[in-house]
């Protein structure tokens, strides 16, 4: 059998198993197993030996059984970073890239306004003192993207899950990013007292407990702890916002990813916690997805 035939066959199999985007997934699994890039695969369409066929079949069976593609191939691209993922860690989503882009814009615009106010501005010293905190970091995708964008900043990131911290640390090594520290513990727990940050980011668990069972089967393979936001899905926004002010410098920003329909409630919590300039940004599907607020 040739490579393109096995892609077609695998795609049919996945489609029957109810996998959305069956052809895309089949192609990615076959290319991964064969160690080929798409162009060379389509140009050469090589003969596939028996051991490769059985390897491909094993991967296709896992995908047909509902395991997320990203767990099987073990990686996902996030804003140009190569992020390793696997069972026990949330898979980064494109919506979270939006949070990072908004946070980067805010940091840059603040830096330029600060520098334009100073007559003797020294961007280097200003940058060197910048520090960011990412809560519920999971694979580390937010923290690593910020650390890469601002190599002079110090990024601290926490997660309650040892697995997450293991992946995040591995991802920092894999991407050669050194200005980030991943600490295990709940929310602000591992952050030394009296340290304050220019920016806090978080993509916390935000799904209502009662909605977890009805999620797509792939999402149900992700850690419930990374998804479950309590009865109304807002537990972590409340917990984080009750303390965030004391970990932020004056005029520091907090950025949250939001679940569907949560922007008003989270804006209200942020307002009650004393935050101002509360703004919501929509994602590409028109859903309120990112909330930013200033101390
Ligand atoms: N983005 C995930 C989903 O849509 C949820 C992640 C989270 O709870 N922060 O299922």
As for the number of domains, it is 2
Q: What is the structural class? A: alpha/beta
Number of helices: 12
Poorly predicted ranges: 123-127
Give the overall average pLDDT. Answer: 94
Name the ligand types: glutamine
Strand order of the largest sheet: 5-4-3-6-7-9-8
Under CATH at level 1, the class of the largest domain stands as Alpha Beta
Fold and architecture overview:
- By secondary structure, the chain is of the alpha/beta class.
- It has 2 domains: 63 residues; 207 residues, Vaccinia Virus protein VP39 (Rossmann fold), CATH 3.40.50.
- It is built from 12 helices and 9 strands.
- It has a 7-stranded mixed sheet, sandwiched between helices. It has a two-stranded antiparallel sheet with strand order 1-2.
- A hairpin with a 2-residue loop joins strand 1 and strand 2.
- Helix 6 runs parallel beside helix 8.
- The longest helix is centred in the middle third of the chain and has 24 residues.
- The radius of gyration is 21 Å and the shape is elongated.
- About 2% of the residues have low confidence.
- The protein binds glutamine.
- Glutamine binds next to loops.
């Amino acid at each position: 059998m040739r490579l393109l035939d096995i892609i077609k066959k695998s795609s049919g199999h996945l489609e029957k198993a109810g996998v959305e985007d069956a052809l895309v997934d089949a192609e990615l699994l076959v290319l991964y197993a064969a160690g080929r890039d798409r162009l060379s695969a389509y140009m050469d369409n090589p003969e596939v030996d028996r051991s490769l066929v059985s390897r491909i079949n094993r991967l296709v069976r896992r995908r047909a059984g509902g395991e997320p593609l990203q767990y099987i191939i073990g990686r996902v691209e996030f804003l140009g970073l190569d992020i390793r993922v696997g069972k026990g860690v949330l898979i980064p989503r494109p919506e979270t890239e939006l949070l990072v882009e908004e946070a980067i814009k805010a940091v840059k615009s603040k830096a330029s306004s600060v520098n334009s106010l100073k007559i003797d501005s020294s961007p280097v010293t200003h940058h060197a003192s910048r520090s960011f905190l990412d809560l519920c970091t999971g694979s580390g995708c937010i923290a690593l993207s910020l650390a890469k964008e601002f190599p002079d900043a110090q990024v601290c990131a926490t997660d309650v899950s040892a697995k997450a911290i293991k992946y995040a640390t591995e991802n920092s090594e894999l991407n050669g990013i050194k200005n980030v520290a991943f600490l295990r513990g709940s929310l602000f727990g591992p952050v030394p007292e009296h340290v304050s940050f220019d920016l806090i980011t978080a993509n916390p668990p935000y799904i209502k407990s009662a909605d977890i069972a009805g999620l797509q089967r792939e999402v149900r393979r992700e850690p419930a702890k990374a998804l479950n936001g309590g009865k109304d899905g807002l537990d972590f926004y409340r917990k984080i916002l009750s303390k965030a002010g004391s970990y932020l410098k004056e005029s520091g920003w907090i950025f949250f990813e939001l679940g569907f329909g949560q922007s008003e409630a989270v804006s209200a919590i942020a307002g009650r916690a004393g935050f101002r300039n509360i703004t919501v940004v929509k994602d590409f599907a028109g859903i309120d997805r990112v909330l930013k607020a200033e101390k």
